[in-house]
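Quick question, first post here. What does this chain look like in 3D?
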Amino acid sequence: MKVNMSRRLSEFKKIGLKGLKLRTQLFLWVILVQPIFRSKFSFSVLRRNLLSLMGAKIGKRVKIRSEVKVHFPWNLEIGNNSWIGEEVWFINHEKVIIGSDVCISQRSIICSGGHDYRSASLEYAHKPIEIKNGAWVCLDAKVLPGVSIGECSVVSAGETVGKSLPDYSMLIDGQVRKIEPPK
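> Answer (accepted):
Ran it through. Tokens below.
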């Protein structure tokens, strides 16, 4: 019996971290800093400072709750007065830019990394993400690579965002609807 193999994962080309500084930075983040950052016993101000120390750009009065996961702090920017809920996961192989006054609720995943499904070896297909000022990503939502979430837009709980949302819109039950600006 002949088996047709259309995937050839042995041909996958991993993109390594280039440069000693970046590899050292990743080592320090994973081994020393991240366990403190993710701890339930550290305060939001400590989390902000640890992210900044590792290369993230963090605005003023940002709230970062416990157990947040960040793959690469140097690929994360968060504007002023934004909130990051418990257990949010940033899989940020490319830049993730979050505006000011943004709320990302608990257990949401913001993923700028991916693979090209058309490639037999599933080569990388990373794309940056932008979440604009005033947006709200509700509980357990997923934002996929290349997406831009418009100003004051809302991603309803449990939704997966695969296409960009315009300003003042809501993704609910897989449908995009226009909404009124906040008062």
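The helical segments are 20-38, 44-53.
The chain has one domain: 19-178.
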